[in-house]
Each structure stands twice: as C-alpha cells, then as structure tokens.
Amino acid sequence: MISSVSRRALYGLATSSRFESLVKATGYTEDLAYRAAKRYVAGRTLDETVETVRRLAESGFGVCLDLFGEGNDDEEGVRRVVAGYEEAAAALSGTGGDVYLEIVPSNLGLDLGVDVCRRHVERLVELLPTGSRLEVSAEESWRTPRIMDLTLALAGDGAPLVATVQANLKRSPADVERLLEAGVPVRLVKGAYLETSEVAHPWGEPTDTAYLHLAHQVHAGGAGLVLATHDPVIREALLAAVPSAAVEMLLGVREDDARALVTRGHTVRIYAPYGQSWFRYWMRRVAEAQGT
Ligand SMILES: Cc1cc2nc3c(=O)[nH]c(=O)nc-3n(C[C@H](O)[C@H](O)[C@H](O)COP(=O)(O)OP(=O)(O)OC[C@H]3O[C@@H](n4cnc5c(N)ncnc54)[C@H](O)[C@@H]3O)c2cc1C
C-alpha cells in the first residue's frame, strides 16, 4: 500500500512543472539530480549521446534513440524537435550502429492534429538509416485513438514503423487486431501511465496476464513481436514460446540481463533517450523502481 502510494506520488511529481522548476532552479541542484538520473539517460548533449550509442553498439546492442519531450503544442517547438532529430541522424551516420529512431507523438505535434503530426513524422521517416525503423511510443490513453490513426496512416504509406501497445489498456486487443491487419510490428509494454479502472487493468497480475495474451495474439497474427519488458518471468516464458521475438530494454535497467540475452543470441535493443528535458522521464523511472 505504502509503495503504491509512493508510486502514485512520484507520478504526480513527474508531471509537476513546479517541482521540475524547483529542482532545476540552480545549477547545483540540477547537477545533483542529473547525477542520479544519468543511468537512464543517454546524454544531455548530442556528443554525450553519440558516445553512449557507440558504447551500446560495441556491446552488441541495437539502439532506439528518442529526443526527450512530450505535449509540444506549438508548431515552432515541433520544428525544433525535428531539427534536433536531423542533427542526431547526421551525428550518428558515422557510428555504424544499428539505430532506430523513436518518437513520442505529442512531442511531434499530435495535440495540434493527426495531420500536423504526420507531416512532421514523415520528415523523420526520411532520416532513417537503411534498414532502420521508427518506433512510435504509446502515451496516456486519451491520446491512444489519435496515435493509432497516425500509426495506421503512416503504415499505409509504407513507413517502416514499430507500434507500441500497452498491456494494461483494455482496448489493446482491438488495437492489435488493427495493427495486424496493417502488418505493423508490435512492441509490447506493460504501460507507464496511471490510468483509471474504466480503461485499464490494475498493475500486477491482471496487466501481466494481459501482456502474455497480447504477445500470443501478435505472434499468431504473424506480425513482428518485440518484448519491451524487464520482467524476467514474462520475458523468459515468451522467449521459450516465441524464440524469434526481439527484446527491448530501457537504458540503465537490469543491464546484466540485457548482456546475458545478447550472449544467448537474442536481438536486444536498448531505448536510449537524450536531451535537456530528462526530468519527467527520470521521475517515471524512479516511480517504477519502487514497484507497485
Ligand atoms: C523499450 C521500452 C519502451 C517503452 N515504451 C513505452 C511507451 O511507449 N509507453 C509506455 O506507456 N510505456 C513504455 N515503456 C515502459 C513500460 O510500460 C513499463 O512502464 C516499464 O518498462 C516497467 O515495466 P516492466 O515491464 O519492466 O515490468 P516491472 O514489473 O515494472 O519491472 C520488472 C523488473 O524490472 C526492474 N525494473 C523495472 N523498472 C525499473 C527501473 N526504473 N529501475 C530499476 N529497475 C527497474 C525491476 O527489477 C522490476 O522488478 C517502455 C519500456 C521499454 C522497456
């Protein structure tokens, strides 16, 4: 109960601009916080990030690079995000790593409309290295219908995407059906946002069971399956049934497991977010590290 309250409280802090401003009020407090956040963050600058990508690639990992940000609701801000990805793609072109790009749709103007977002995402698709894919993050459930519309529209144009499906959402089996029809690979996560019981299963057994069902649904439907979880029981049960599934993990979480999976011959991709807006992401990870 106490840990569940603290998880909820930490989620509250993760979305509190006042708390973020307080932490970032002085260089000293910001550096102190960043020192703790660093394990989860590829870098604040592009130079640091390129170094992290190089290190991950040398260890046999694929990388999924995401420029921090969410809820970007002015076009000028969205254009700056696109320019950031352009800079990153150029800086990474020499690293030779297996790098996917990831987008949080609301960081690319989803709240301004699906078409606005789509126009900007199309530019990012052009930046993808050969053989690479664009992974589309899942956000709060109120954004899911628009993220689905965006994903299916882009997939209809032939964009090489990976969709993210949250196991905790009750709508997910129906979303998976639509993604299967469109031939879009699915990355399965438990779900990082606090949702109401109307739309979501509780954290724990109900979400874990939903995860297993959805993974089998994706596999039976013939789409690529990506297991984005650090839960060793779920992961091992599914890898035994679907050895071809890829695994994705967050930078800084259960790194020994990630290395062991590479040694066993599995494809492992590390989600590596970067940029100046690391605060909310870090708070969510701290909340998850508390458990339920
Ligand atoms: C590649 C990737 C992409 C993701 N993308 C999205 C997305 O687009 N939308 C979304 O809603 N969610 C996303 N998530 C987050 C996901 O929904 C979960 O919130 C998060 O992964 C924790 O769930 P878990 O499956 O690892 O299981 P848990 O049961 O939370 O964790 C299993 C074990 O992993 C370890 N662990 C987990 N988190 C931490 C941590 N922060 N620090 C230290 N140890 C930890 C603990 O040992 C824990 O017991 C993503 C996760 C991954 C791995």
Write the layout of secondary structure elements.
Blueprint (H helix, E strand, L loop, with lengths): L1 H13 L2 H7 L3 H11 L8 H13 L3 E6 L7 H18 L6 E5 L10 H14 L6 E3 L7 H13 L4 E6 L5 H10 L4 E4 L15 H16 L4 E3 L4 H10 L4 E5 L4 H9 L4 E7 L4 H11 L3
Parallel strand pairs: 1-2, 1-8, 2-3, 3-4, 4-5, 5-6, 6-7, 7-8
Helix pairs in contact: 1-12, 4-5, 5-6, 6-7
The structure holds flavin-adenine dinucleotide (FAD).
Structure description:
The protein is an alpha/beta fold and 292 residues long. The protein has two domains: 57 residues, no CATH class; 232 residues, TIM Barrel (Alpha-Beta Barrel). It is 50% helix and 13% strand. It contains twelve helices and eight strands. It has an eight-stranded parallel barrel, surrounded by seven helices. Strand 7, helix 11 and strand 8 form a beta-alpha-beta unit. Helix 1 packs antiparallel against helix 12, helix 4 crosses helix 5 and helix 6 crosses helix 7. The longest helix has 18 residues. The radius of gyration is 18 Å and the shape is globular. The mean pLDDT is 92. The site of flavin-adenine dinucleotide (FAD) has 22 residues, from strand 4, strand 7 and helix 12. Flavin-adenine dinucleotide binds next to strand 4, strand 7 and helix 12.
